[in-house]
Amino acid sequence: MSSKKAIFSKTGYIKGKQCLKALYLYKHHYSFRDPIPAERLMRFSLGNDFGILARKLFPDGRDATPSHVHRYSESVALTKKLIQDGITTIYEAAFLYQGILIYADILTKLSSGWALYEVKSSAKVSNVYQQDLALQFFVIKGSGLDLRHASILHLNEPLTENYKDQEIESLCQISDFTEYCHETYSPIQDEILEMKTMLAGSRIPTIQMGPHCHDPYTCDFIGFCTQQVNPPNEGLFKD
After folding, report:
1. Are 112 and 97 spatial neighbours (Cβ–Cβ below 8 Å)?
2. Which residues contact 152 (CB under 8 A, 6 or more apart)?
3. How far apart (Å, rounded) are the C-alpha atoms in residues 198 and 125?
4. Which SS3 state, helix, strand or coil, does residue 12 take?
5. Which of 8, 109, 118, 166 has the most CB atoms in a 10 Å sphere around its CB?
6. Closest CA to 134 of 110, 104, 112
7. Cβ-count burial of 235 within 10 angstroms (0-12 exposed, 13-18 middle, 19+ buried)?
8. Model-level pTM greater than 0.85?
9. φ and ψ at residue 138, rounded to 5 degrees
10. Do residues 89 and 106 lie in contact, with contact meaning Cβ atoms separated by under 8 Å?
11. CATH architecture observed for domain 38-189
């Protein structure tokens, strides 16, 4: 597992797949980002809570979460040590490969090798979730771990208010996407190269606004791009 500097994470990768300009702004001009809506923050919180709850399906694991978000090398080193020490279940295992940093929700060792589980607090497994999982598979395999299985642990149906009182086994199911991860392994390599090349440039990519600004997510830089399209005092009735 490399200790080199991270170029971007799986969040950046998903942004780059949606729009290379969004990834560039995210990495080089983060302050241009729109305020995060309260609804999205609530979804983040719900997802984190469910992720902790899902660990009950894989008990007695060790948590590799770093002491601070920017101390990812600490987490990468701890993950490596835990594996070397024979720990068979790790939460938030960190891997850095080709400058791509990922944290695996649940990583557990089976008799046939290691298995990866990405936890999602949604009843629907979207294509974005599969892409997220595939990138993790790419990074972990590239780091040298004998990763054999990759799955998404997700809800059977939307959560109710009393979900924490229910048995975790009744709330969720596991969908295997190992074959999908193998199929997308080489294309991911090409995508990462394209993203790295773009990020090394000195100019913001010129990409026009369009349907991709809201697909699969509403972009964090809509405000910035809208201002570029319609600069202040540059309309028909400018001063």
Report:
1. no
2. 117, 118, 119, 120, 125, 129, 130, 133, 174, 175, 177
3. 30
4. helix
5. 118
6. 104
7. exposed
8. yes
9. -60, -45
10. yes
11. 3-Layer(aba) Sandwich (3.40)
Tokens of 154: 């997700």
Say if residues 116 and 153 touch (Cβ distance below 8 Å).
no
* Dihedral sign, Cα of residue 28, residue 31, residue 37, residue 40: positive
Q: How many CA atoms lie within 13 A of 233 on its CB side?
A: 1
What Å distances lie between residue 44 and 37, 142, 164, 198, CA to CA?
11, 28, 17, 29
Q: Where are the domains of the chain?
A: 38-189
Beta strands in the chain (DSSP E): 8-9, 62-63, 89-97, 100-110, 113-120, 147-155, 172-176
Over residues 104-157, the pLDDT tens digits come to 999 999 998 999 999 999 999 999 999 999 999 999 999 999 999 999 999 998
Residue whose pair of structure tokens reads 């170029």 in the numeric block: 7
Question: Which two three-digit tokens encode residue 114?
Answer: 């290691």
3-state secondary structure of 216: coil
Cα gap 24→8, rounded to integer Å = 10
Measured CA to CA, the distance from residue 110 to residue 120 in angstroms comes to 22
Count of CB atoms situated within 10 Å of the CB of 174: 12
How do residues 3-58 score in pLDDT, each as one tens digit? Answer: 467 899 999 999 999 999 999 999 999 999 999 888 887 877 777 888 899 999 99
By the 10 Å C-beta count (0-12 exposed, 13-18 middle, 19+ buried), 168 is classed as middle
pLDDT at 175 over 60: yes
